[in-house]
Amino acid sequence: MKRLIDAGLEQLAGMLFHMGELAQKTVSLSIMNYIDGTHAPEQVKSLSDTLSSMSEPIEDMVFEIMSRFQPVASDLRILRSYMKICYDFRRYGRYALDISKIYERIREAGHCDPSLHKTIEKMGIETLEMVGTSIEALRNHDAELAKTLTKREKCVDKLYYSYLDKLIETKTTTGCTISSLLVVRYLERIADHATYIGESIVYLATGEKTRLR
């Protein structure tokens, strides 16, 4: 038998999942543009702005449900986790916009040393897969899937530090090195937020507080 609070939670889950799909699209567009050397700054900015505007009604709804139903136990865990995930989705959009702005200002990705460019490519693809996994885990409240983000986050970190080592070896400062350094940093932060989402999903599904990084 459904409770009165269930309708509100389902509506909230739908809003959050829609935000997640949009966040994934924003990050994907930004990363693929950088890797392919194409550019769509207005589109990325528009998507990032939309993500920011979506967070307020979600937060309002969380507070409305809390004030109307005074949830406890698993319901309260879900609401708390949704609030955190909403923030992480917003950060996805913000970092995607940062990547787009870097490319717009420097436009050097295509002139990087091939080995450096290859690492950015690997890191971008791995990060995109982490974003996809975080959203899929949210869709099903799948704690086990969320825990798989740990291994992927370690892989992104390894690529990130490997990239820094390669840059040091080049001993040069070019548009490529500046641009790519910022981009790999933003990718590393997006991967971090994917694991934060994973931690929230584990918490809402099991009540277990864990660190996946």
Could you please describe the fold and organization of this structure?
- This protein has helices spanning 4-36, 41-69, 73-106, 114-140, 143-147, 149-170, 175-206.
- With 213 residues, it is mainly alpha-helical.
- The radius of gyration is 19 Å and the shape is elongated.
How are the elements arranged and paired?
Elements: H1 4-36, H2 41-69, H3 73-106, H4 114-140, H5 143-147, H6 149-170, H7 175-206
Helix pairs in contact: 1-2, 1-3, 1-4, 2-3, 3-7, 4-6, 4-7, 6-7
DSSP, total strands: 0
Inertia-based shape = elongated
- How many helices? The count is 7
Task: List SSEs in N-to-C order.
Answer: HHHHHHH
The end-to-end distance, rounded to whole angstroms, is 39 Å
Largest sheet: none
Helix content: over 70%
The oligomeric status of these chains comes to single chain
- Overall SS class: mainly alpha
- List low-pLDDT spans: none
Strand content: under 5%
Would you tell me the overall average pLDDT?
91
Roughly how many Å is the radius of gyration? 19 Å
Keywords:
213 residues; mainly alpha
Concise synopsis of the structure shown:
The protein contains seven helices and no strands. It has helices at 4-36, 41-69, 73-106, 114-140, 143-147, 149-170, 175-206.
